[in-house]
Amino acid sequence: MTLQSLTLLFLRVGNLTFGGGDAITALLQRELVHLRGWLTLDQYGLAQSLARVTPGTGILAFCAATGWMLRRGPGAVAAVLAVSVPSSVLAVLLTWGFTLLSGSALALATLAAVLAAAVGTMWAAAWLLIRPHLRRATCLRMAVMVTGGFVALSKWAISPIQILAAAALIGFFWTSGDDQ
Amino acid sequence: MTLVLLYFLLLKATATSFSGLSSLPVLREDLVVRHQLLTDRQLNIAVTAGRSGPGPNGLYVVSVGYLIAGMPGACVGWLAMVTPAFFVVPLVRFLGARADRPRLRSAIRASTAASAGLLLAATLPLGRGALTDGLQITIAAVSFAAFSFTRIGSVWVIAASALIGLLSATLAGK
After folding, report:
1. Closest-CA distance of chain B to residue A19, Å
2. A141 to each of A52, A159, B105, how far by Cα in Å?
3. Is 0.85 exceeded by the ipTM?
4. What is the pTM of this model?
């Protein structure tokens, strides 16, 4: 496996897959573990777990981790660049297009519908963070954290950083069976 | 607003969140509320643009940078988006064996749950601007269901929303 083949794989999967990080990770698992055998399932699992505990966009941390496992520093840099640069250029073009279209009544109505979909997207993002914990022993802690985060920001305007730090501190001491 | 300051404001948002859109509350507080460099409407456009194409969910940070400072801002946004990704390398090297420790896992899960609450709170002001009639509320609800319970690609949901908005405006004679 060369740096070039690694870059081409991340370039293809990362920039042709819609649906965000989970969809990209699933496709990379198929390519890296099952089709090419570049990583073992354990290595893949470790990269995925650590990507989840790394701040920022999880899929980029996942790419950095697997790139580092395969080709050390150059592999990590190549994987992150390959996944993020072309899609970022496209995001800028889409932003430019959406902004440009905001002058006409038809475009405004279209944009309003798209923006409404964006709000639905954010509800879904929150739901997808909550859903894995619903049937676990951590359900009560999750409910307290979600509600606390919501109220602390919307009612009391506490800084999100302070809210997240407080949540991590509480979680550090409030463990449950599922955390074992 | 210098590019360096913009970078650190965006990095503050990306480096203190654990998924693509969970950086939104921090970013909104700094750029919309405190510094007023961006409006809620522009933030909505950035989120939409970031989700309309392929790639990571965090791409809206690039769009935010572009809306504030043009192409240099987009580059700064990209840099702020990718910087935290490299924090994983020392984790892979040194902390891999500790990731399963119950207290660390518990702290991360609690923080992730709180970020879901923050995300919901952040949709309140965004929703006030974007959900102004029954059609838009329906679109938001259907989008939520599509993203949450199906595997439909986000581009199809956004394209369908745009088409419905266009048809609705055409039928209303706008």
Report:
1. 5
2. 19, 21, 13
3. no
4. 0.73
